[in-house]
């Protein structure tokens, strides 16, 4: 086929990527795994040509690879900022590796900015948003489905790796930071209430949001080569 063959051919719109984001210990990774299982069982129901990839534990990988500890975030602002910068870069690489497919992620680049705002400072968090990497990630979030998990329930468990809030108030303050950032960036999102505690119900909540996004994509038309 020549380089011009197929030009103008309409391709089906890729399913919207799903970002499950929020404060620590809100059941994000568990939910991503359950969503992967759901789509594996319901691929034909949703007329999917492929199942979503699961993008999980990017931050945990950065912590281990660069020998950060949870205490670095609260004890050293310079280390905390460096960690968040590395996490944004790692998230960008992971998402770029899945270009041309679709995925469900248990965090986004915005998570790192929220942690920087909370534990480093407003100026430093704003600077993270000035990079070209951030701009690309922000655009991807706007095109995807963003689900913000509300703190609460029985998920606040110390696994010895992640940063734990000192109390419930700090947990909910970080959640408020996420909401503020999403609003400032003009990124549409839905809050998954902690009161929706059964995993099957949480999966259905996300699937419903994803379906609504898909309907909006269909109205916008197909991609053109």
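Q: What amino acid sequence fits the structure above?
A:
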């Amino acid at each position: 086929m020549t380089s011009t063959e197929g030009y103008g051919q309409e391709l089906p719109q890729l399913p919207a990527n799903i970002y499950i984001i929020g404060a620590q210990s809100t059941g994000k990774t568990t939910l991503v795994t359950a969503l992967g299982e759901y789509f594996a069982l319901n691929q034909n129901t949703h007329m999917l040509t492929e199942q979503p990839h699961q993008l999980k534990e990017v931050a945990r990988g950065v912590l281990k690879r660069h020998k950060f500890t949870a205490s670095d975030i609260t004890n050293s602002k310079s280390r905390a900022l460096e960690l968040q910068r590395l996490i944004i870069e790692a998230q960008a690489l992971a998402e770029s590796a899945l270009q041309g497919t679709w995925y469900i992620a248990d965090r986004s680049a915005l998570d790192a900015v929220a942690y920087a705002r909370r534990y480093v400072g407003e100026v430093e968090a704003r600077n993270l948003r000035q990079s070209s990497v951030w701009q690309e990630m922000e655009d991807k979030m706007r095109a995807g489905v963003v689900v913000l998990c509300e703190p609460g329930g029985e998920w606040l468990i110390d696994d010895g790796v992640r940063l734990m809030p000192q109390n419930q108030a700090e947990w909910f303050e970080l959640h408020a930071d996420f909401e503020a950032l999403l609003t400032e960036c003009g990124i549409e999102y839905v809050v998954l209430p902690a009161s929706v505690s059964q995993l099957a119900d949480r999966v259905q909540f996300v699937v419903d949001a994803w379906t609504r996004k898909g309907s909006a994509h269909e109205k916008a038309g197909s991609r053109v080569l």
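Q: And what stands out in the fold?
A: The mean pLDDT is 85.
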